[in-house]
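Notes, Module 5: Reading structure tokens.

Key idea: the token line is not a picture. It is a compressed description, and you learn to read it the same way you learned to read a sequence, by spotting repeated patterns. We will look at two proteins. The first is printed below with its tokens.
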Amino acid sequence: MNEHFNNPTNAYTVPSVSITTAHTGASSKANEMGMRAMQERAYAKRGEQYLLIKSPPASGKSRALMFVALDKLNNQGMRQAIIVVPERSIGGSFADEPLSKYGFYWDWQVAPQWNLCNAPGVDEPRVAKSKVDAVRKFLESTDKAMVCTHATFRFAVEELGIEAFDNRLIAIDEFHHVSSNPDNKLGSQLGALIARDKVHVVAMTGSYFRGDSEAVLGPADEAKFETVTYTYYEQLNGYRWLKSLDIGYFFYTGPYVDAITKVLDPALKTIIHIPNVNARESLKDKQREVDEIMHGLGEWKGVDPVTGFHIVKAADGSTLKVADLVDDSDPAKRSKVLTALKDPAQKDNRDNVDVIIALGMAKEGFDWIWCEHALTIGYRSSLTEIVQIIGRATRDAEGKERSRFTNLIAEPTADQSAVAEAVNDMLKAISASLLMEQVLAPRYEFTPKNAGPKDGFDYGESGYKEGGHNVGVNQETGQYHVEINGLVTPQSSEATRICKEDLNEVVTNFLQDKTVLERGLFDKENTLPEELTQLRMGKIVRERYPDLSDSDQEAIRQHAIAAMNITQQAKLALAQGDANGSAVQGSTALLDGVRKFVNVRDLDIDLIDRINPFDAAYAVLAKAMDEKSLRQVQASIAAKKLSIPEDEARELAKRALQFKTERGRLPDLNSADAWEKRMAEGIAALARYRAQAKAKAAQEQGESDHG
């Protein structure tokens, strides 16, 4: 990644994640009804009352909904369809579509008066009254489809009551804006609609990190939804042009405008998101920041009077057109730039603009297919926002083979008073990068050893071998089949679904746990892998799925850790190949890494539990930061020594009982095996907690007797 730039702390920018796909063209091919792969998959489940479509930006969710909604209106007795979008600008995605022209049975039509996203007036109670009236009139009419914002829908449900929506399809776009938090009105209204059970619901999200750390629905409601998942991997694998994506973070010292030229390649079509004026990275003068970025690109030559783009002459003599979306001092100027960017006549013109500099804009729903590099300064606290920013660079466009996302992060330095804050930002950036890796990697199908070959999977030249180290790949779905000794298989249908569909969300919880990241990355000397893989992940699964049996909870824990660790170990195997000059390139790279890791040893779940999930991330960090900074971060985290909290002591004692069942004895405090010793410490800690509780109870009893 831009290895030719000279860089003070690193030799080069390190892509912490790099995926390469087969670019089969499948995700953009339409069937005889005009449906692309993801739309066909959603349409196959059109009969479900509650449907959740999880699929990346640009995969065609809006049109998928049209197909499903039209079937519900024409064949399933639904009276009307109400499409609910988070903001008015997205309403355009549901404009009329002549679907029959491409082979479908009906066309999608929304009468102009029912597309409330186009109606004047903002979405707040005072102004929204007229829109609520419009919803009432629509419900009384015989028309079939309406589009409105989340806010309008919320006010309408409050005023008209949930019964008014009986026998209608409610379709919620960008579903990650909803949450089960009681303060989230739309979330609680949705819960009430589901409890009444008289509507059909289609929910759609392009973000796997729904609500970031808030669940969107309570577990009981979520269980009612049938899920259609279309992965990033399938989407990218099915592109025609784009075949690789790099995601990396780059640490800098001093002002970011001095470091940005090291990662900003003027030859790439780039969106730069500068930091919010309140962020630590900001120089507190956004216009100066834009000017310095332009100065870094080359010599300023003026402004194009037609488009409002800045003209910059680069060092290689080429002319760059730069759109400044940061300057909001003159609305007319800004409007001219936005109009030039959105000009339909320029949609297919790669040379319309070269660099876009933005602050709060050009994220969700912004469509510039030529973007090859999304460069973001400062970490973003919302993973949903990061996914949306990366989505800007992952559009398929002719001749665009490679794209990248770079996050420029301030490196903690010895003279910095806010080391803790800088470390916090770093951890979040690394967490986001690892999560994206998990989302972009192929899905795994795990089975116990010798479960036999699975249909549709290719096991290499010599095929599936009983007792062998088998790794199969399904070219259609991009799934890998990996066998693991001692793997607990899920028993209930819900646990089976979670292991198939929702592992990314379990891993998200794990990677957003600050203690997990701190200990796993920077306090490896004092942290046993099992404390992360068994205790922390076990706790996360139990809290997330409290109603499942112990056995199902353990199955989910094992599947989630296996998915993470196998991806990380495959990456390490590839990095070692890189270092030895035997790097594997092309779309089979990750698969070859998985095979390398699996072939060296007989995979069993105990082995996977004994691997620190952050080994590969640490290897990247060690390259990306100078040693002094790295040592300083490690020292600041190691200083935060933790005693064993009571819930962890209880979990260690449970693991110790399992150990006793297997070995016939309790763990020994003096054992040479660190994990056995830790379990014994857990028993001792739990005994202390119980003794303290007993003493406290006795004291209180004594006091009440004397009272």
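Here is the second protein, with the sequence above and the tokens below, as before.
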Amino acid sequence: MSFSLHGIGVSGGIAIGYAHLTSNARVEVPQYMLDRKYIKEELARFDEAILATRVELEILRTHIPPGAPAELSAFLDMHLMFLGDSMIAEAPKRLIQETQCNAEWALAQQMEALVARFEEIDDAYLRSRQEDVVQVVQRVLKALTGHPSHLPLDVNFDVERILVAHELSPADMVVFKNVHFAAFITDLGGTTSHTAILARSMGMPSVMALHNARGLIRDHDLLIVDGRDGVVLVNPDESVLAEYRLRQNQWRIDTDKLKRLKTSKSSTLDGTPIELMANIELLGDIDAVKASGAHGIGLFRSEFLFLNRSDLPTEDEQYESYKAVAEALDGKPVTIRTLDLGADKQAPWGHTVADNPALGLRAIRLCLAEPGLFLTQLRAILRASAHGQVRMLIPMLVSFMELRQTLQRIDEAKDSLRKDGLKFDEGIPIGGMIEVPAAALSAGFFAEQLDFLSIGTNDLIQYTLAIDRADDSVAHLYDPLHPAVLNLIQYTLRAGAKAGKPVSVCGEMAGDPLLTRLLLGLGLRTFSMQPASLLQVKHQVLKSDLEELVPAAQRLLKNTDPDRTALLLNRLNGQ
């Protein structure tokens, strides 16, 4: 029977192959009470499962194939760090002793408590890290219940295979290049998950959030995976199959052509230079940045250093990380965003979660509330500025008082470094993120006080339209082409131009080639995006003429008819 499934396309491209189902649904956990005399044995059984899981992850590390993304090792390190954290390795043992329950139940209860706390985090990227907690715990539960790992380490297929799973962990991704899957699809997951990040860095077509794919698809069903449109076709007829084979060949040809653009000068047909920067979360992303030919790093999300740990990174630890990125860029600009983290009970600094964390203590608000934490990071960033062209970016600025306090904290950090005799760039550029409507409408003031601005379109859209982009029930209302959003973007760009200060866009809009010409027409000259998207955006830049784009963009900006929006965008893109 032929049918189609729709989910979230997290990595572009088209794959055609036969389904290879894998079962990694959550282990069913029994609950039973133990006699006090068996508690010691139960604790030992739990410790053995932790050790077995650690050994399993270490073995996976040895099977990372040559040329695999550096993130694979980093994510396995993160899972190993989770495994050693007291919240997973020790807290369940206390529960076993206090309630005399079995190890599986104690661990499952601890997992649910941790997941609940992650759910309270405002930032969608950080909130999605709960997946890592679940994946690590599931491995331990499988060790406790005697279930083997579900993915083989070395399998050769005589035909193209597409992995179909309920969910996948980054550790599972390690074996992909050895197993030679053409693509993967999952019921769970989203664009900000580690698995999705890895899929994009590996160039593997993938669709996630399909909900029921694992239950509907059978082993050996013929599948077409369209990672761009988020569509999976099951047992297509010959005409559909022929059409997608043509699309697949064309996609491969287009991908090869794009690689030739790496060294091309980035400018429009009329000669206007356009800066194309990259966003990174990890030091391992640097190779992808260089392969894309990016002009630098427009956004380094520093919160990764603070993630999934029971203690705060030291100043030296942060400094070494920032320094390594700055030196790796060989003089190209590196924009480091200060900590952008929402309030969470698990945070080492101990703040409680607000009733509405999306509007609570997060990003610069949190940093100003914790001057010791902020000073440590500011000193680390400033010290790294002596090793490259480093810029500092302040997230979620809203009020003028916040900006004044932030600049005072930066001055204090500089004074402390001078007293310690440590070198830094005295003129390090300081920028602010425009992520809420209030900041966009005050962009003129912020542009006067700062060296540059960066528009975070993900949050700007979320706050402008009052849409939680992580909530499936309202995801269809998340619209980057809403007139209010486009007007705020243009207002910010014009404020920057008037003040003579550069303005970039570092949200998902910057990496969408369908929106490149629109943003150029609105006045954007600096884009920052995932490295994998850069050459597609560059292709659009090279064939754009600003004289034609500006009036077309203004027509779309003034349009209030949703039915006409797609037509105007197609015209603007020359389709």
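Summary for the second protein:
- Residues 150-155, 343-350 have pLDDT under 50 and may be disordered.
- The two ends are 35 Å apart (CA to CA).
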